[in-house]
Amino acid sequence: MSEKMNHVEFVKKAIISLRKDGYKGIHTVYSGFNEAFKKYFEGENPVEVTKRLADEGKIILRPVKGGVMIYLPEDAPPQATRGGDALKKMGL
Asked: Which of 14, 72, 82, 85 has most Cβ atoms within 10 angstroms of its Cβ?
């Protein structure tokens, strides 16, 4: 039997395998990632692990309706800066 993947390996493999054509990331809920993570790691919390990996710079999280999108760092879209955009539109 093959050796079990660690968190980083699992998450990166999930992003690559579960993303749909034309998309760079996956929705953690709608893709089935959260459920698969809990089964593979026997009940561990995917939210805590993905937050830790994001803090370490290994993945990028973007909040979206119904959960978060996760991306490989090189594939993440630029972070929107609504406050900066609003100030720019206001001429400030």
From this structure: 14
Tell me the three state secondary structure of residue 60. strand
Taking alpha carbons only, the member of 24, 7, 6 closest to residue 15 is 24
Identify the sign of the CA torsion 51, 55, 61, 63.
Answer: positive
Classify domain 7-89 at the CATH topology level.
Arc Repressor Mutant, subunit A (1.10.10)
Describe the chain by its helix, strand, coil percentages, rounded to 5.
Answer: 45, 15, 40
| Angle at the Cα of 13 from the Cα atoms of 8 and 19, rounded to 5 degrees | 125
Rounded Cα gap, residues 83 and 85, in angstroms: 5
